[in-house]
Amino acid sequence: xxxxxxxxxxIRGERMRLISPLLKHVxxxxxxxxxxxxxxxxxxxxxxxxxxxxxxxFPLHDPLLHDHLVSTDAxxxxxxxxxxxxxxxxxxxxLLWAEGHLKLPSRSVLLTCDDGLGNTLSxxxxxxxxxxxxxxxxxxGASAGGASAMxxxxxxxxxxxxxxxxxxxxxxxxxxxxxxxxxxxxxxxxVELTKQLSAFDTGSRVQMLEDVRIQIxxxxxxxxxxxxxxxxxxxxxxxxxxxLRKLQEAGMTIGAHTMSHPMLSQTSExxxxxxxxxxxxxxxxxxxxxxxxxxxxxxxxxxxxxxxxALAKRAGFKSAFxxxxxxxxxxxxxxxRIHVSLKTTLAEVxxxxxxxxxxxxxxxxxxxTA
Length: 370
Prior knowledge:
Layout: H1 2-34, E1 46-50, E2 53-54, H2 63-66, E3 70-71, H3 72-85, E4 87-89, H4 91-98, E5 108-114, H5 119-131, E6 136-139, H6 152-162, E7 167-169, E8 177-179, H7 183-198, H8 202-216, H9 224-228, H10 230-236, H11 241-249, E9 253-256, H12 269-287, E10 293-295, H13 306-314, E11 319-321, E12 338-339, H14 346-354, H15 356-365
Parallel strand pairs: 1-5, 1-12, 2-3, 4-5, 5-6, 6-9, 10-11
Antiparallel strand pairs: 7-8
Helix pairs in contact: 1-14, 3-5, 6-7, 6-8, 12-13
């Protein structure tokens, strides 16, 4: 019976995926233009998540590497939509609402942004200030230090893209991973290696990544072109503590994103708690203010379980956020978020914020009754 129910859910989910192009290019634009979406309201605030903005003219040699960011022009259009049709609330207002101390206006929206890349300060902040918006920026423990660094899993993806031939990656005590030359093969290898390497503490992971770099044949000074280019640096390097303080001084709220951004579900409970709790304490020490919010790295059902939610609460956080639009905002330690990416259209943003997408998805994926 459980198998039949699961299969039914898969079929209904597949139906939703099949009609998605029609929704994106026909239904959402029509509903948005007609004003229908303006009349809809959510039970609670909608939470949007970004991962930064790409500067105008940024070369998209590999879209998969950048599809979780948005273009500068698209971000401006989206902020203009929020200004005209929604009520953007501050992170502090969201917290008061979550704790039952504040009633929010209808069509409330909370802005969040993960990873703390350099472009959040150089490109994103001025746009937010222009519209008078605040944002909850989730950063890793690396941003509490004086030196800027790249996200380890993005380094890994760049290396795999640069592999000149097919190669098998062999790491001690782990299954080998074959890296092909096609984009899907590269992406699959990246996912598997990211899972494997997430299970280790930062020190061990750094050593294993060095082994991966050598096996692929990447030069030791490969990072110099990224660190010396202002554009590439703002795209790939995270904020350091001085830059992070500038975000804070501009009125933005800072949240934690673990110490090193692993897939927490792949780690031991002890290591997962350390990743979560240490990011909170380290950022609080660096900024001198309480850090009450956590965003789970990768943030989907495959990487966040009930265990991780309990660990966030145990570490002293007041709220924790997913990266997918699943679940209920009533669960303070698995708050769903609308992920805006490079391919997200303005009408799609409107459909998600208004709650139309969610209500439609629930109808398509709800169990059928006899």
